[in-house]
ABC transporter permease
Amino acid sequence: MSNGHQNYANHRRMHPLFHFVYSVLALGLVILSLIQLVRSVQSGADVLPAVIFLLISIILVIVFLLVRSYPLKAQDRAIRAEENLRHYVLTQKLLDAKLTIGQIAALRFASDEEFPTLCKKAAAEQLSPDAIKKSIRSWRSDNYRV
C-alpha cells in the first residue's frame, strides 16, 4: 500500500455536511423545541404541538447518532478482519486477543515492517490508540474510512 500523504497530523476524516452542518442543525432544533415548549407552558397555550416538536427533534438526534455509529461498527469489523489477515500473512499468527478494536484501528496505519512488533508492544503495554499512532515511523494510509 502506498504511503500517500496521510500522516498522524492529517489522518482524521471529517465530512463537513455531516459533522458540522447536520450536527449544528440537530442541536439547534432541540434547543428551539425546548424553548417552544417552555414558552407554551408559560403562556398557558396548548403544549401538545411543542411536545410533538420536541419528540421529533429528539428522534432526529437519535437518528443522527445511529447513522454515524452503525457504519463505524461495520468498518471496525472490516478493519479487524483485514488487520488479522495482514498479521497472519506477516507472522503466521492471528492478532493477540488482548488488542481492542481501537488499538487495531490505530495499528492499521503501521507499515508492514513495523506492524508485527508494534502489535506485540500494543498488546503487552496496553498502548492507547493515540500512543500507537504516535509511535508509527512509516505511515500506511487508510483513505477509505470517514
The radius of gyration is 22 Å. The helical segments are 16-43, 48-91, 101-107, 115-125, 129-135.
